[in-house]
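#dry-run=false #mode=assembly
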Amino acid sequence: MCLSAFSLFLGAIELDIAKLIAGDWEQVRILVISRIPRLLAILCTGVGMSVAGLIMQKLCMNKFVSPTTGATIQSAQFGIALSMIFFPTMGLGVRTFFAFALAVIGTLLFVFFVQKIKVKDTVLVPLIGIMFGNIIGGVTNFLSFQWEINQQLSTYFSGSFALIIKGNYELVYLVLPLVILVFIYANHFNIVGMGQDFSKNLGVNYSLILIMGLSIAAVITASVIVVVGQISYIGLIVPNIVSMFKGDKIRGTLVDTGLFGALFVLVCDMIARTIIAPYEIPIELVAGIIGSIIFIIMLYYKLTHGKRGKKGVKAGE
Amino acid sequence: MNVKDLIKSYGRKKVVNEVSFEVPKGKVLSLIGPNGAGKSTVMGMISRLIAKDSGAIHFEDKDLTKWKSRELAKKLAILTQHNNIQMKLMVRELVAFGRFPYSGSRLTPEDNAMVDKAIEYMELEEYQDRYIDELSGGQRQRAYIAMVIAQDTEYVLLDEPTNNLDIYHASNLMRIARRLCDELGKTVILVLHEINYAAFYSDYICAFKDGYIAKFGKVDEVINKDCLKDIYNVDFEIIRVKDKPLSVYY
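#status=ok
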């Protein structure tokens, strides 16, 4: 997995090298200003979104919770819309802050709601999340039409790397220290994922770690949305696929999850760029199509092969 | 550990009412009683999982609530009855979490030695690299107990550990509880439904009824016709097997 990520990483650069050799200084500038930032943004996005999904799944004890199905993405977009309405002249800083704040609030609200009403059904939780997300999305839509910012806002809806150039993407680097933070607290998140009693028994502050973990996931998601826009499903499917092979110990799977996420986004981006070249389609479209297909396969697999597991759980109760 | 005037109500109903007792150190104590008598709630309160309404719990001469969570985790371990962890963890990884209160995320060689010892103690060597969701109920229960052993606490609290185990695994588990006390010198507190397991494997029994303590004492003081009839409202016959009181009911 590591190797394949690497080879594709090289592949993406080679595309540029060919141009570089043929071209001159102009080509170098394209490389530095546009291509390298794009590649880095793609990698950060892939790593960030999949790690955010990983934490959310572990903390919520539910394989189907992710930034897409946990209202995080919609909340961040709502935050961006609010900042455009109330502070239209302010720059990226305010917008980012609003996205962060709303994403954190939205995610925490969703998780506490789900915990309060004690939803037992694993499939029901993400469904509630999707509904909750759609409500927020609806409000965002209404506001954006009301204030006529929908055009401006649309870049934050369908993620695309086409607009990434040097100077406007650096915010995604925020993903890196956050992912390192996740690595440091990986075992804490694992323990919290095993439940409240379990955490107390091992002397871990359940609520504190839960809020911290969810906030990290929300901020990662929001920073990706501010720079790239919405990219669905990565946070949902990547951690699940990795967990099938590598188990659920966060320390052990974090690196693989990140790399696989980066690989997934890289492949999607390449498809998006080549399919109607020289134009490109938003990566959200590609990721959405591929992601939803994999998601359906995954659900099907869970329902047919998961029966044994479900019985086991019932017997264990 | 000393428990005094413990009260807990859910809504208007007092589920635990002025419960006071002293946990005998280095012994096996079983809490028994009918459903809803409050034994699991008491267990939850002395293990700090459930907040008490009033009363006092002193643990090693210090109020339980004054203990730092991490410090307490080195002294007292609790295994609850609902352990349906939805996580694909290897047995060894799970057991290693028992060392968390000591070393956090970085395991020292001593920690690894403790983990090895706990796995060996529970005879899980051949399963240590298997995922817990692939194990049978009995094996999984053993893995959880191995984690508690790795936690290396003086007090081990097990809430209905024999639930859903067949006779073979349940009696095995009771023997392990006994060995934890006899061989490792731990104080073991159990919540049990099965009176005969309590009678055969514990030193002391605390019987609950309607939130009160109906009887606290050595096994023979509690397991007798009158006392059990009083607690369960069922007629009992007592037969002595291996010098232990075996109760028969129908």
